[in-house]
Amino acid sequence: MILPIVAYGDPVLKKKAEDITNEYPNLDALLDNMYETMYNAYGVGLAAPQIGLPIRLFLVDTEPFADDESLSEEEQKTLKNFKQTFINAKIINEEGEDWAFNEGCLSIPDVREDVFRQPKITIEYLDEQFEKHTKVFDGLIARVIQHEYDHIEGVLFTDKLSSLKKRLIKGRLANISKGKIRVDYKMRFPNQKKKR
Prior knowledge:
The chain is of the alpha+beta class. The protein has helices spanning 27-40, 73-80, 139-152, 163-177, and strands at 5-6, 45-47, 57-61, 83-95, 99-105, 108-117, 120-126, 132-138, 187-188.
């Protein structure tokens, strides 16, 4: 089932999310719905707060980046085959020299800005079977994970911009929160009532 994506301005996007247990109700169905929602919106990642749930859950599928011809064949192959669910994730290390990449977000449509992040991360997380992993990721995969991880920490990519950049996009962000935007996927705006 395709779920509406919560738009910029909704308080759930600024809330630090809570851990879940393997008793979380209908987790398999939720994961299926989240993947379907992400693919429907042509995203490469989706975090639970973006569908209105303040829980530490996000998913990543970097296959769309594999088409980038500026990447080596090996990088393309890695991106094409990376699909992962992250539950109760915790980044335990970020390293390397900050690098800029033009980021966007399904909750903030039509706004893209360069964001600086470190290129290599070490992250602990549980997979969908609640098995624990500690892994190191770098490059674009690390970048997408960092972006989605920020969502479960209550941080948006726009929070990482300079005050000048924030002022320049303030009007666009206000329009998004008021629903004054056209998107080709389902969204829920802060001033809309939840449909039961």
